[in-house]
Specification:
single chain; 157 residues; mainly alpha; 4 helices
Length: 157
Amino acid sequence: MSSARTPRPAPRLSRTPAPSGRGRSRGFAAVLIVLYGILALAATGRASYELTTKFAEAPLPYSLSLLAAITYLAVTILLVRGGGASRTALLLCCAELAGIVAVGSLTHLAPGLFPDSTVWSDFGAGYGYVPLILPVVAILYLSRQRRRAGAPPGAAA
């Protein structure tokens, strides 16, 4: 009997890369794009109707609905572009959130300014508070993406 052992083959290393989370991240970006796109369509339809049929009744709210529509459309486009556009999207989402908080507060503090509602009235209550929640989620997502890419928070992308 021989005491020599036959060498075992080395274990095969998997050639499949470890999950990086990028697929999940792009999937979440797609959800944001769809939600912003829906809001863009809804706000554009609303603003178009209001501005063409009854602008004289409440010019401030109807103009703010148009501003909301433009904001949602711009964020949608920036999210689709991704990459370097993410910094601009982040800044626009911050401005959007400030607008929602300002308009939402004013609808309670100075209701006379708003004889009719806007997309952002009452913090987006007419849209299920999605206009308030969505920019917060987008800001968190975009900030996290920037950190993952190694960009300092204030650096140009």
